[in-house]
Specification:
By secondary structure, this protein is α/β, with parallel strands linked by helices. Helices cover 16% and strands 27% of the residues. The longest helix is centred in the first third of the chain and has 18 residues.
């Protein structure tokens, strides 16, 4: 009886893990995703990304809705088989059906600039730590001193 229980538990773990190991349409924590990719550049060049760094259209970076910042992903254009390795440093795309926005440089390597949107496959190479630079805020501190706030007698 004990041996049968071990076999059943082991089989359910193996089959359960295989069922969610990266099938199409899986969540953002899956190692492989399939969907549509678009690209952005031009007017966004030099602006701050969600991670706090400046967007560089010539860098191999991308935007993803949920993957941690710093995650390294291989994006494959399914129409021509070309691949590129990018780093997630922004959030997006915010259009239904798209799973990633790549920089202009990555779009050139994928040969997708003319098409604008292509079917693609994402494969996570290394998950990032999700840390990002926060913009420093200047704080004005008002000190109460006798010269600034005289006391009334």
């Amino acid at each position: 009886m004990g041996r049968l229980l071990v076999i059943v538990v082991f089989a359910s773990l193996v089959l359960g893990g295989a069922a969610c190991s990266g099938a199409a349409g899986a969540g953002s924590n899956a190692r492989v995703q399939r969907g549509k990719a678009s690209w952005y550049g031009g007017k966004w060049h030099g602006r701050k990304t969600a991670s706090g760094e400046r967007f560089n259209k010539r860098a191999l970076t991308a935007a993803h809705r949920k993957l941690p910042f710093g995650t390294i992903v291989v994006v494959t254009n399914l129409s021509n088989g070309r691949s590129v390795k990018v780093r997630i440093n922004d959030r997006g795309p915010f259009i239904r059906g798209r799973i990633i926005d790549v920089s202009e440089a990555a779009a050139r390597r994928l040969k997708m600039r003319g098409a604008g949107v292509v079917r693609c496959k994402l494969r996570v190479i290394k998950y990032g730590k999700g840390k990002y630079k926060r913009a420093r805020r200047r704080r004005h501190r008002y000190r109460s001193s006798p010269s600034v706030n005289p006391t009334v007698k």
